[in-house]
UniProtKB/TrEMBL annotation:
Protein encoded by which gene: glsA
InterPro entries tied to this protein: Beta-lactam/transpept-like (IPR012338), Glutaminase (IPR015868)
Residues annotated as binding substrate: 57, 107, 153, 160, 184, 236, 254
Summary of subunit composition and partner proteins: Homotetramer.
EC number(s) reported in the record: 3.5.1.2
Family annotation (PANTHER family): GLUTAMINASE (PTHR12544:SF29)
Species for this entry: Methylobacterium brachythecii
HAMAP family: Glutaminase
Protein name (Swiss-Prot/TrEMBL): Glutaminase
Lineage of producing organism: Bacteria, Pseudomonadati, Pseudomonadota, Alphaproteobacteria, Hyphomicrobiales
Alphabetically ordered keywords of this record: Acetylation, Hydrolase
């Protein structure tokens, strides 16, 4: 990990920090962190692995897990499971597919998933449920929402407002649009460190179990399926390239984080705020490529 972090620290190519959410533009382009938690619970980490950053779309993995727990396969009536081949905030397919988003990891899909979690609750309760789930998974009650990021996104999130209204017009959302978006903006604004994120992802690497306690968080079948969607859709229209280069299920966020899962082996989180053209962490992807190559962890073979 130290070797990878050192190499990443020296690289001149770092990608561009997201600026469409003004608060995210404040991130330090020089930051890089990596944390890996193996099957034995051991942590290997380097760089800025303890610095909290805005996890953004990475929470889409955890909200998908919660929504499937709440309404099971009925969720697939309002969101698909196919890669979109379009940017994360694209609206084009929504009209062709009657307001049903292509998958739960693009913005439209995650808004539909958030709406499913919200039904029957007040927005504050739904948000509390999401936050408590992350704290439970990471075994860390200090995980919190960065209110400045949430407010910044709420002020500028016109595209997400459009996506939500479009879906609402087709009856895909059950709750008032501003309630659903309020919960969505806030869960995107959760701040976590690489170590906390790797902790939270352990159940996906170990067939739905916490590998340390052996307790089941979700069924092995559900964990396998969430990993499949992470592999095919976790990096938007960069998902094919991520599978080709890294070879692991992974989910990125515009804060520059990536959660990756080496089934049976490790839960991995990397962070570097500079993004590539598809909105995925540039050095995050490169560092994961180095890691999986050295460890022989690609799910497609050595
Ligand atoms: N909160 C961000 C948005 O809705 C999440 C996008 C992302 O991380 N790709 O635009």
């Amino acid at each position: 990990m130290s070797e990878i972090a050192e190499e990443m620290r020296l690289r001149p190519d770092r990608g561009e920090v997201a600026t469409y959410i003004p608060e995210l533009a404040r991130a330090d382009r020089r930051a890089f962190g990596i944390a890996v938690i193996g099957a034995d619970g051991q942590l290997a980490a380097a760089g800025d692995s303890e610095t909290p950053f805005s996890v953004q779309s990475i929470t889409k993995v955890f909200t998908l897990t919660l929504a499937l727990g709440k309404i099971g396969d009925r969720l697939w009536k309002r969101v698909g499971r196919e890669p979109s081949g379009n940017p994360f905030n694209s609206i084009v397919q929504l009209e062709l597919e009657k307001g049903v988003p292509r998958n739960p990891f693009i913005n439209a899909g995650a808004i539909a998933v958030t709406d499913a979690i919200l039904s029957g609750h007040e927005p504050r309760e739904a948000l509390g449920e999401i936050l408590r789930f992350l704290q439970f998974l990471a075994e860390d009650s200090s995980i919190a929402i960065d209110e400045a990021v949430a407010a910044s996104e709420k002020r500028t999130g016109f595209r997400n407002v459009a996506l939500a209204n479009f879906m609402k017009s087709y009856g895909v959302l059950d709750n008032p649009v501003d309630y659903t978006l309020g919960v969505y903006f806030h869960h995107c604004a959760v701040a976590m460190s690489c170590r906390q994120l790797a902790m939270a992802g352990r159940y996906l690497a170990h067939s739905g179990r916490n590998p340390t306690t052996g307790l089941l968080v979700i069924s092995p079948e559900r964990a396998r399926r969430i990993n499949a969607i992470m592999l095919t859709c976790g990096h938007y229209d960069g998902s094919g390239d991520f599978a080709y280069r890294v070879g692991l299920p992974g989910k990125s966020g515009v804060g520059g984080g990536i959660l990756a899962v080496a089934p049976g082996k490790a839960s991995i989180a990397v962070w570097s705020p500079g993004l590539d053209a598809a909105g995925n962490s540039h050095l995050g992807r490169i560092s994961l490529e180095m890691l999986t190559k050295r460890m022989g962890w690609s799910i497609f073979g050595e």
